[in-house]
Structure formats: structure tokens, C-alpha cells
Fold this protein.
Amino acid sequence: MSDPILTLSGVSKSFPGVRALHDISLSLQPGRVTAVIGENGAGKSTIVKILTGIYRPDAGEIRVGGEQKHFSSPRDAWAAGIAAIHQETVMFDELSVAENIFTGHMPTGSTRLVDWAEMRKKSAELLKRIDAPIPPEFKLKRLSVAQKHLVEIARALSHEARVVIMDEPTAALSANEIDDLFRIVEQLKAEGRAIVFISHKFDEIFRIADDFVCLRDGEKVGEGPISSVTEAQLVRMMVGRPVDQVFPKRDVPIGEVVLSVKNLSNATEYADVSFDLRRGEILGLYGLVGAGRTEAMQGLFGITPVTRGTVSLDGRQLSIHSPSDAIAAGISYVPEDRQDQGAILSLGIRENVTLANLSKYVRGLFLSRPAEQEATRSLGRRLAVKAANWEQRLGELSGGNQQKVVIAKWLATRPKVIVLDEPTKGIDVGSKAAVHDFIGELAQDGLAVVLISSELPEVMGLADRVIVMKEGRIVDEFKRGAWSAEQIVGAATGAAKEAA
Amino acid sequence: MNAPMQPPESRYAVLDAAPRRARDILLRWEVILVILLVATIVVNTIVSPYFLDVFNLADATFNFSEKAIIALGMALLILVRQIDLSVAAIVALAAMGIGYAAEAGFGPAGLFATGIGIGILCGVFNGFLVTYAGLPSIVVTIGTMSLFRGITQVILGDQAKTKYPAEFLELGQSYFIKMKESGVSWLFIPPIPLSFLIFLVLTAIFGIVLHKTATGRKLFAIGSNPVAARFSGIAVDRLTFLLFVVSGMLCGLAAALLTARLGSMRSNIAIGWELDIVTMVILGGVSIAGGVGSILGVFLAVLTLGLVTFGMSLNNIPGQVVSVYIGLLLIAVIAIPRIADKLGLRTGR
Ligand SMILES: Nc1ncnc2c1ncn2[C@@H]1O[C@H](COP(=O)(O)OP(=O)(O)OP(=O)(O)O)[C@@H](O)[C@H]1O
Ligand SMILES: [Mg+2]
């Protein structure tokens, strides 16, 4: 084995009430992909932040090419050849794609002014290299979550880094985009770079990784070549005991039509979306990123105006102009964009969990702290939220734990119809099963569920029926039992010929 | 098949609340303000023998109570990332309305109602432009600041309104509790002017609404992340609108108290108040970035500023020095927590 590009030894980091990392050592080899795995809150992102100069370790050392380094800012890390795609994107909505890619290291001419033409040219090249046809001059806010992710990848590539770290890069991507991403990873590998890959999806890990490092509660509990372990062994290592990864789908009688959507359209993103949803039914909504699923459901929920179409609930036509109208009518929507739309990072866990149905916690005139605590505790435990305390600011939790809190907030409300948009994004295996079970329980209680997910196994495991959207339109529908993964993906990509 | 599977219990032990740590408590904004307030009182007492006289202190409250009443509404607006810079202009417009109403023979109740009514209308106008027209509140209220003040100036010119019913004027000078009336010599009840009493009552109401009710929680959510608040079904626009109306209403109330106290009004009444009021709110620890603040903080800031101003005037310190001092105070108080963060004294970084 050649000399490692980067080594960590004896690294520890604590936050008040949590030991995030304890005595971690690892080394990264050129041309190899190291998967870092562990449950939500195990310390994966903390390692990334230490490697990129965002946090300073309490103890331990970092060596790059044999030389000891102290990073006091992300700039130092770039200079040492380390670039990362962070789990929580830090980008500028009002700036262009090109500016976002080159933040902090914009190309300058001899005048020391920004060379805009050069910057746009390089951006276009980078985006082309990763097959992302996004015009460099677009403002970032016009892009979807997945497209933003691609811009982040381009940004990491722009540093020409020797170590590229990807913290859950696939969380927002669907199958095809993941293939594209893996092509890029292979390319980076061939160029002799070291790659750190963090993901909760084992199929990806086994596909792309050469080595693994497993963390548990901030300690390293295993490492080695990925070929030496099985998925079950990894899960066991992560969790510390064997776990049921799937709960059997609950047998729920399907009732009468609750929600009826007809010809829902807006100007550009989706057209003539029609479907009926029945009591107790879980309807999967599958498609590629950009197929218009999120946009259509946000139209339904009153976030964005619709130009045409009707929505009826229990046979009564609704007029929805805002989310509060939708919620009053009995329709809830759990957004996919956790950072901006789902979580209130500066409020505490308790305040987030109770926010979507505050009236339930009012006793007399006032909010009852014990009632709120009670609900937070029981939902938080059920979803295995890891935190120092329930009053902790949401922004201090790990990404997956933030997502669990957001889910808890919505599952605490009991509407008639709930639309879940990528609900298990970033959640570890064990907790994912808990969320799935929770969704099943809601259906059993008579709730009608629309599940948008880019993860086919999730859709196929939970849904009674799947409708597939492509380019803003519904192109196909499959019933449970009468489907195959190939058929569904085929319909989404348009690869297969239209089913009769 | 339907047997409910129990998910394994979470293996994480999560506390209900963070353990209290002395230095976190000591660096709380409110504690800093209390220290400041006590320091102000101690220094002033040493410097001037007249400072701690209850009658003097009670009189001092006249000078800030009206502004302080408006500051309560401003605190909520700033908390949700809005601002109302037209407050002083609303006071002027409402005070003019009260002047005309008094000439038309209205009694005290009618005059208060007139002021409050005009304030509400102004608030509705601001709120409408901000929420339904979707304009930034700083722009809207800079506009309406000129508009409302301008209307007052156009109508009044350099005329003054000075005719008010006696009962109304009496309210402006009145103490809710007079020292002698308590009768019992050992029972010490300080004299409390009506405007200060109204401020106290409103402080209690605002504090309870903001910190104990669902509505208050919603305001914190809006201030922290308006997008996520909207997705959570909070009627962001409706609440914002309501806050502008409340702000206008408090301006109308303050206008009535102010005219009753002064017994006359001109078009330049309450000029420059908006900055004093914003100062009270910021010193009170309400973050301009939204989502952070407490009514207790605003209350303490109001008292501190009021007593500093009063103390300095007792010692014949000129107004310019007072404003230099207040400027320094504001910067210092805002800087302390940031510097403490930088030094790593507080947790969470
Ligand atoms: N700024 C912070 N303040 C307090 N605690 C923190 C902070 N950042 C991280 N932590 C804690 O450190 C632990 C590790 O977090 P980290 O983000 O590294 O987890 P992770 O392995 O990336 O999890 P996930 O899979 O959910 O992304 C968590 O318990 C988290 O709550
Ligand atoms: Mg993470």
C-alpha cells in the first residue's frame, strides 16, 4: 500500500453534554474510497468538519502528506488540498452558480479584479464534467435541491483537491443522478485522489467504497476493506446489536376516496396532475429529481400558486391559497428541504416538535410545558433522537437527528392527508425502520399518505400504489404486487416503452 | 400479521433540560441589564442625594413611559424581523386628531378612543403594505413616517392645539396611587403615575402573551425562520399584519397620554422618538436578525435608559453627553455576549 495522503491520529472533540469524537485514528490512501459509517450522531460530520477547519479538535493531530497541519479555517484546509461537500449546504441563494462554485477563490486577472469570463468558462467546464447542464449565470435560488447539490460537487472539484470528502452526497438524489455521481467518484479515484464517502445507504457503500471506517457514539468500532464484511455485520457494528431493518408492511383496509386531485397545473413545472387518494392508502410518488413531484405537492399545499386544476377533500372542493388553509382543511406537507423549510434551527427540539399543532398543548390560555415535554420525549424516543437534552437548539444536532425532529413534528399532527417529501433523507437504518413503522401506523389510523421518495426500496416497501411522474406529468401507475423495480425506473426515465 | 411491533427503545439518555451552569446564567442578557440597572442606581445615588427620592423617581417615569409603551409593540415587530419607523409620526397624527376632537367637545374617553382609532388605522395601512403588497417594512415605514408627519404639518402648519377638557389634562398629570392616600404609615406604596402604571400592565400582558401562549411561540418561529414557520401552518402574514396594528394602537394610546401630559401639541410632537424606541428594544436584547428577545429585557432596558437620562439631568449633564453615554452603553452591551462567545466563555461553540 502506498503512503497515505492524510492521517488522523488520536482525534477527540466534545460539545457540552456530548462526546462527539473520542480518540479517532484513520488514514486515507490515494485512489481509494473510504466509507465512514455510523448511526445518526455517531460523529461522521464532526470528522468532516475537523478535516475542513470548521471545528478545532480538542486533542489529536492531522497529517497531510506526512506533515502535521493545524487548520483554523476552511481556507487552510483548501490550501492543504482538502475539499468537502457538506451535509448542510452552505451556499448563497442570491449569487450565480459560477460565483457559488468559486466563492473564496475566484479567478483574478493581472488587475486583481474578478475575471468573470474565466470564472464562467471554468464553471461551465466543471459542470460539464459532472454532466450537470446548469447555466453558470443562473442564480442559485432558481435551482432545485438536487441541482444545488451538483453545484456543490462542482465547487469541491474546483479546488483540485487531493482529498475529496462527500458527506451524504446522495441523500437528495435519485437513482440516475447517483449513477452520475458514482461515475465522477470513479474518475476522481482514477486520478489518484483519496475520497471519503458518507452515506446511510448500504447498496451505495458496497458499490463504491474500497475501505470502511465504522463509528459508534464517537468511537471507532471497526475498519478494514469493505470486501471483508457483509451488510449485516456492518449494521451490527454500527448499532451494537442486530436490528430489524424492515418492519413488515401493515395490512390496512383501504377505504373511500379522501383526496381527489384533478388536472393540477402550473405555468412551467407540472401539468394535469390527477389522482385519487383513499383512506388508509399510501401512495408512492416516484420520479427523477426535477420531475415536478415536489412542485406539484407544494402547489397542492398552497406554497406556490397553481394555474389550473381542482383539489377536493371528502368530496368538497377546496380553495387553498396558503399552507395554513391547507392545514385547516386537513392536509399536511412535510418538506424535503430540511434546512430552509422544515427545521427551525435556532429554536429548541421541544419548540420544533410542537410547532405544527401548538393548539394541542394549550391548557386554558397558556402553553403547557409539561404537555410539550411529554410529547417531545415520547416522539423523540420513538425515533431514537440523539441529543444532550430536549431543550437543545436544533442546529446543534447531527443532520439525521434534525430530520428525525422534523418528522416527529409532522407525525405529531394528525391530519386527514399527509404528504411526506423524502421523509427519511439522512436517517440511519434503525431509525428509518422506526419512521416506516410510524407511517404504517398513521395509515392504519385511517390517514391517507402521499410518499415522495427517490429511494425505490422505500417506495416499494411502503406504498400500496405508485404513480410515476416524468417531466411534470404522470406517466404511469403501478399497483402493489404487480410491479418491478425495472418497470418503475423505466417509466421514470422513459427508457421502457409506455406500458399498455 | 397485524401484531404491532414495538420499535426498540432508544438507547440514548436525553435530559429534559441542560444542566445549569453559573457562567451561562451570568452572561444572560437580562442579568447584564440588571447589573447595569443596579450600577446606574448606585452611581446616581452617590452623586446626587435627590436621586432616590420616590417622588423624583415617580416624576422621572413620566419622561419615558409613553415611549416605553410603544417599545413593547416595536419589540414584537423586531422579533419577527420587521420594524416600524413611523411610530413617532403616528403619535403626531393621532395627537392632532385628539386636538380636533377636543375642540369638538369630546370627553376623556372619546379622546383616548380617537387617538387609539387613528393609531389603528395607521397600523392597518402599514400592515397592509407590508403583508399584502409584500414590501419590506423598513421601506414602507420610512415612507409612512414622512407621510403621516407630512399630513400633520400640512393640516396644522405652525398652529398649536391647546384646548382640552380639564378631566383629560388631569389624567396626564395624575398618579394612580398617591403617597398620602395609603394612610398607613408603615405601608410603603410608592406613587405611581398613570402612564407608568399602564406601561407596567401592558408589560405584564405582552410578557405573558410572548412567553406563555401559542401566539408568542409562533412569533419566535416566524422570527427564526419565516419559511419554515409558513410550512408549519403559521399564518405569517396575518400575524405580521396584526403586529403592525398593535404597534399603531399603542402609538395612539401614547399620543393620548402625551397630549394629556403636555396640554398642547404641535406638528413636531414626539419628533425623533422612533430612534429612542428602537434603542430601548435593541438594548433590551431583541435581535435585529429576528427570533431572539424577551419582554423582561425590554422592560429592564427601558428602566435603565430612563434612570440614566433622569440621573444625568439631575446633575445638569447636557443632553449631548447623555446621548454619547447611551450610544456607548448600547455598543458595550451588544458587544459583551459576542466577546464572551469569542473567548469561549459561553457554551455551544
Ligand atoms: N455545534 C454543536 N454543538 C453541540 N453538539 C454538537 C454540535 N455539532 C455536533 N454535535 C453533536 O455531536 C454529535 C455528532 O454529530 P455529527 O454531526 O458528527 O453526527 P453524524 O455522524 O454526522 O450524524 P448524521 O448521520 O445524523 O449526519 C451529535 O451528538 C451532535 O449532537
Ligand atoms: Mg452528519
Q: What stands out?
A: The radius of gyration of chain A is 23 Å. The mean pLDDT of chain A is 89. The pocket of adenosine-5'-triphosphate (ligand 1) is lined by residues A 15, 18, 20, 38, 40-46, 87, 386, 396-401; B 348 (CB under 6 Å). The domain at 257-499 of chain A is CATH 3.40.50.300 (Rossmann fold).
